[in-house]
Amino acid sequence: MRLLHTSDWHLGRAFHRVNMLGAQAEFIAHLVTTARERGVDAVVVSGDVYDRAVPPLAAVELFDDALHRLADLGVPTVMISGNHDSARRLGVGAGLIGRAGIHLRTEPSACGTPVVLADQHGDVAFYGLPYLEPALVKDEFGVDKPGHETVLAAAMERVRADLAARPPGTRSVVLAHAFVTGGEPSDSERDITVGGVASVPAGIFDGVDYTALGHLHGSQTITERVRYSGSPLPYSFSEADHRKTMWLVDLGADGSVEAERIDCPVPRALARVRGRLDDLLADPELARHEEAWVEATLTDPVRPADPMARLSERFPHTLSLAFDPERAPEEPDTSYARRLAGRSEEQIAEDFVAHVRGAGPDPHEQAVLSDAFDAVRADEAVREVAR
């Protein structure tokens, strides 16, 4: 069976000030064309269809168009909700839509109930594991301590139990929206940390022929059977080195996996440039970035006049401008942004305690802070579901 694995469309999302709806529509057309021309038997979409729980009307219209195109193609599609989606909204009409071959899986309680498709070698069971917010699904899965690993492990127990009851030789595909250990994040994914932990081990998916992951925006191979497709479009300059693709996966009669990356159309290259303004404007090596979307970091000791206007003369698609002035070795680095770079919310809070009190929090206080942040995230998740 040939699968086309994609995820993280984020319909409705902009790139800095650039409306990406046209590029997203171009991607949908590319996906449908690829499915038709490459003889795809099933399309899998592993979450974050939308960028937010209540998407703009134009994004909903594009999603509706995508559903019609996929249904007209006659290729079954299995789709789950991600942490950016409202599972309840995305799942409205799932039963009716399923009759057209578009199978939406947004309910945690249905993790162990697959969509079963068949080819000449027999059945393939597709299990949809939507994003599982631990605080919201702990009762459904009967876990004492809610965390990403515990709820995903419980969901996978249901998958394995159902699979064990099926005829021998039934192949299996799991769609999941999660941060798996070993994956490389970017700046454009929403933090899903719970209890100080965001990731889960890849071994949770052992026993499944193929796991189609969503959430991280870079295309990645965790193992030969566990892969991220990545987002089809860039949503932060941290993705400047990404190759935006989908996975074309051939699932053999014995459950073997062969995968090929299919490039996605990207409207414009990304470039990150750094240096003094005059150097950036004169450097011939940077000519290749003149039509790219540019993030520029200026290192001039003194902020130059009209830097954005001057940069835009050479790089007309400059979208982001930052300053990181060169400093003498003895001069302290007073950049607040640099002090916070790469630090989690919990670490920033602990730094604040140390700054105010002169000593950082002890282990008990660290636990209190971690619980407080988890409670805030859970409350935000509940409010998104209720919208």
Descriptive report:
There is one protein chain. This protein folds into two domains: 2-263, Metallo-dependent phosphatases (Purple Acid Phosphatase, chain A, domain 2, 4-Layer Sandwich), CATH 3.60.21.10; 270-326. The protein has a six-stranded mixed sheet with strand order 6-5-4-1-15-16. Helix 1 (21-37) packs parallel to helix 2 and helix 5 crosses helix 6 (148-164). The protein has 387 residues and is an alpha/beta fold. 32% of the residues lie in helices and 23% in strands. It is globular, with a radius of gyration of 23 Å. It is built from eleven helices and 19 strands.
Labels describing this entry:
single chain, 387 residues, alpha/beta, Purple Acid Phosphatase, chain A, domain 2, 2 domains, six-stranded mixed β-sheet, 11 helices, 19 strands, globular
Give the topology, please.
Layout: E1 2-6, E2 14-15, E3 18-19, H1 21-37, E4 42-46, H2 57-73, E5 77-80, H3 87-90, H4 94-98, E6 102-105, E7 115-119, E8 122-129, H5 134-141, H6 148-164, E9 171-177, E10 179-180, E11 199-200, E12 210-214, E13 220-223, E14 226-228, E15 245-251, E16 257-263, E17 270-275, H7 277-282, E18 293-298, H8 307-314, E19 318-323, H9 336-340, H10 345-357, H11 363-386
Parallel strand pairs: 1-4, 4-5, 5-6, 8-9, 9-12, 10-11, 12-14, 17-18, 18-19
Antiparallel strand pairs: 1-15, 2-3, 7-8, 13-14, 15-16
Helix pairs in contact: 1-2, 5-6, 10-11
